[in-house]
Amino acid sequence: VKYHLVYILHFLWISFVISNHGTPRIFKAWPGQPLCRRLSNCDTRFLIEEAHDSDIGQNSVQMYSLQKNENFILVTDSSQVEIALDNKLDREKQQDIKLLLTAVDGGSPQKSGTVVIQVTVLDANDNAPVFSQSVYKARVPENSPLGTVVVTVSATDADEGVNGDVTFDFGHVSEEDEKLFSIDSKTGEIAVIGVTDFERMTSFELPVIASDGLGLSSYTKVCIDLVDVNDNAPVIHIKSLTNPIQENVSPGTEVGIINVQDRDSGTNRQVRCFIHQNVPFKLVPSIKNYYSLVTTDYLDRELLSDYNITIVATDEGSPPLSSSKIVQFSVADVNDNPPVFEEQTYSAYVTENNKPGSTLCSLTARDPDWRQNGTVIYSLLPGEVNGAPVSSFLSVNGDTGVIHAVRSFDYEQFRSFKVQVMARDNGSPPLSSNVTVSVFITDVNDNSPQILYPAPEGSSFMTELVPKAAHGGSLVSKVIAVDADSGQNAWLSYHIVKSTDPGLFSIDHKRYCEIDIKTGSLVVGERIDREELCGEKVSCMLKFELVLESPLELHRVSLLIQDVNDNSPVFPKDTIKLEIRESADKGARYRVNEAHDADIGQNAVQIYSLQKNDNFVLSVRGDTDGSKTVEMVLDNELDREKQHDLNLVLVAVDGGSPQRSGTAVIQVTVLDANDNAPVFSKAVYRVSLSENSPLDTVVLTVTATDVDEGVNGEVTYEFSRISERAKKLFSLSSKTGEITVSGPIDFESDSSYEVRIDAKDGFGLSSDCKVIIDITDVNDNAPVIYLKSLTNPIPENVSPGTEVGIINVQDRDSGNNRQVRCSIQQNVPFKLVSSIKNYYSLVTTGHLDRELLSQYNITVVAFDEGSPPLSSSKIVYFSVADVNDNPPVFEEQSYSAFVTENNKPGSTLCSVTARDPDWRQNGTVIYSLLPGEVNGAPVSSYLSVNGDSGVIHAVRSFDYEQFRSFKVQVMARDNGSPPLSSNVTVSVFITDVNDNSPQILYPAPEGSSFMTELVPRAAHGGSLVSKVIAVDADSGQNAWLSYHIVNGAPVSSYLSRLELCTPEPQCPEGRPSRRVGCHASADNNSTCEQHETSLSSCN
Question: Where in this chain does the record put each Cadherin domain (predicted)?
Fold first, then answer.
């Protein structure tokens, strides 16, 4: 509260107007000097200087008089003249008062002088300012600019001058209001000087004081209401949030609660809330300004693991304000995706004879789940390969998926197998997927070729007889060898490594096609020359037999060799000589040997052309056998005198692309007459020839005659058309027409040959014939046994009748010579079963037992039906693969182990041993404790067993006083698949150690180790003082007790005998086991010490 002490003053201003009326003279006054008195003093006096009269005495001024008025009276005395305020002045009634003051002398006549006293009533602060309104009300928008006039207060004051000057100020206001508003002290304008915020304060009530110059004041109240402006954007609050969200939540699940607040009011605080993005979430209004954030669809962490959801809130103000908030969600993984392998199947290739542990391939499975749900663990699914568990062949790294070989593979035992690998995640429950891995074993050249024929005769040397007259190229022997390897590793080349005459013999061999075991493709082994294989045959076929295993299938493959234009036409001679009589008639025909093209069809000779000349034209006609007759026709008569010799070029062109051609020069000599050409006795000669016929054997003699005489009748023979192969096998006598053998004849290489022979007279006239030579077969090839498939090793648990091998027998001869019988001569549990042509299945006839016999060497013998018959044999080696068909067997029915109590942990108790006759992992014994309890604790907390050695160790120290024996079950399990096992009982006995002190039960000590017994003073010797009873927790002799008095004063003079009693099981309680004499005093205390002793009886 502020107090103002206001003094209300009246100011009296007196001015003197001087006039000269005579004596007395004018007054002297002090103009401009007010005289101030309080209003409450009505006798306030104002000194007036007396009038002056130059006269003296009675003539001087004698009295004064004042004009009558309501306010003043005149007061005089001998020394001064005063006017005194008789009634209070009121400026507001009369502002100016004029008083006439007269001074009168005492002369006669009296003279007087006057003065007008003008009294101006100055304002005294006797009126407080008055506001125009008792309460002012104003409205101003929040955030109005600084200096904005809110309202103007006005107040009036009836006083004048300083007393009427009104100033304005705030009454008692808060410091905060003082920072927001100011008031102009002169104008009363209230203006904004701070930031007005509707949200902090909606209205203000300001007291305003209006004060005049000398402190009179009045109050008014100014009420200012702030008008809300939309200056606050909505604020989004996350009240609740489920984060992370399980990806398997159902649509409509609430995952968050959103609250939106706007500090504005009215429509400015009305808020709409929504989500902008296309996300599987929406906002559902609940209670006022609250929204539930719910899912609208299924979530999938693997597609999108994090969501940044922008929530936008917009108010209804003008202009509207908005805000946004990003809500981050992570989607928690659920194990909803099994691992997926990158490939549908995998193929692994491993070279045989690999090192165990070598890497075959790597598998990769992806699991889009997170952490343990996406952690992939690889394992082999149980299965068998050739009867053995797959784990004995392969292992897979559980973390990396790398597959390793457990053992070394042998291509000759098996060439491929399949396993199943499982990829499992670590979720709960775990999900998994499987993939097939095909393992292909590639061949290594680790088998030496085996020579099957000729078989060595008791040594490594073989004898073959060769006719002394044999020509070069004659067949000496056929060497047949096989190689257990495959592909190129089985391709054999033959070399003569040592010879007394290196240039005398050579070896020939061909192998045209092979099978790529990885792709199954039939591939070319070496260059195929159709002309070399099939000569002039229109159709050229290479025939093969393709064998598929498991199941056995035989497929015959015929490979059609297509011709390419790789040979040019060739005339038998580069120069053809013709001698023609000049008298020859026009139209005479002269035969010319046709050109030979080793190609066939369109690639063979198609066109002949003759160099342009004046005498001859060319005539070509086709024969029924496909050959062409080429003749020169005399078109103009010859004139020997003009031209003795003619050289003409004959061109043969084939139809290939590009075309190839061959030329021959025809030399025509014009001579005298030669009328007749030679004539063969047959147009076609056919003859049979045995293969392996000796060199120089006469095959056939062709005969042609010429009716001319002399030189014109002399006939010579030559091959006009013959293949390159036939050229090496046959020769022709030009004089006799005799065809003889000049090379090795092999029915298996070619069964027939066709040649053409020309007969020509001395001057060039000729004719030809065809010769067909059929080769007859001789039994010169022993059967060859091929192992097409072999299951090695054979699991010992295969059933009788199981196919373990496929054998093919081939004989290159024909007819009866190639009919073959195959058999096994030994007494073994195997037999041959004929299947398709020349194929046999090797099957078991009984049960196998590896533990009885682990290997078999089977001799397979093949005989043909030739005369004499030829035979061959092959040894097939089998090993019997172990099957886990024997469980481990313990050497004893039960085992007992003894251990002294207080043993050290880890000490050995005993050893168990089990034997398994199976092989390798099937016979590897692993020991383990079967689950169980000993005194309520797991057995594994008492004992452990070494898995490899069977040694049983103590895990802890035993206490005989807790328990004295217990039993455990030990299992011996082999490492087969599935594993076999057997159990044995091990009884563990704990032996006692003297580790417990005796405990005195009676007399019980009374607060100390001393016990008090009262003995009558008159007690006689032998009187019972007390019975001491003690026990020992140990057992046997360790629990037998002896008693001694170890101190007392003096013992011998008081006690003569101590009766000892121990409640041993051997003696009834209270029965003395022994008496000891001693001395004791009846009034002395004695200490009884207990000792252990061995007692033989309870007497």
Answer: 51-131, 132-236, 245-341, 342-451, 466-571, 572-680, 681-785, 794-890, 891-1000
Tracing tokens 């025809």 back to the chain, one arrives at: 666
pTM over 0.85, yes/no = no
In words, the CATH class of domain 679-776 is mainly beta
Q: In terms of DSSP bridges, do strands 513-515 and 628-634 run parallel, antiparallel, or are they unpaired? A: unpaired
Question: Three-state SS across 109-172?
Answer: CCCEEEEEEEEEECCCCCCCCEECCCEEEEEEECCCCCCCEEEECCEECCCCHHHHCCEEEECC
Biggest alpha carbon distance in the chain? 234
Distance between alpha carbon 612 and the CA centroid of its chain, in Å?
83
Fold type of domain 1-122: Immunoglobulin-like (2.60.40)
Strands ordered across the beta sheet of 766-776: 684-690, 766-776, 752-760, 716-721
Query: How do residues 79-116 score in pLDDT, each as one tens digit?
Result: 688 888 888 887 778 888 888 999 998 888 988 999 88
796: Cβ–Cβ under 8 A, 6 or more apart, which residues?
387, 848, 849, 850, 880, 881, 882, 883, 885
CA 1085 to chain centroid, in Å, comes to: 87
HEC secondary structure over 843-882: EECCCCCCCCCCEEEEEEEEEECCCCCCEEEEEEEEEEEC
Secondary structure class of 381 (helix, strand, coil): coil
Of 973, 979, 919, the residue nearest 950 (C-alpha): 973
For residue 950, list its beta bridge partners. Answer: none
Is CATH 2.60.40.60 correct for 340-442?
Answer: yes
The domains of the chain are located at 1-122, 130-227, 235-332, 340-442, 450-561, 575-671, 679-776, 784-881, 889-991
- Per-residue pLDDT reduced to its tens digit, 667-686: 888 875 556 788 999 989 99
3-state secondary structure of 269: helix
Amino acid at 1012: T
- CB atoms under 10 Å from CB of 161, counted, come to 13
* Cis amide prior to 868 (ω within 30 degrees): yes
Q: For residue 209, give the H/E element and its range.
A: strand 203-211
CATH number belonging to domain 130-227: 2.60.40.60
Is residue 400 within 8 A of residue 363, CB to CB? The reply is no
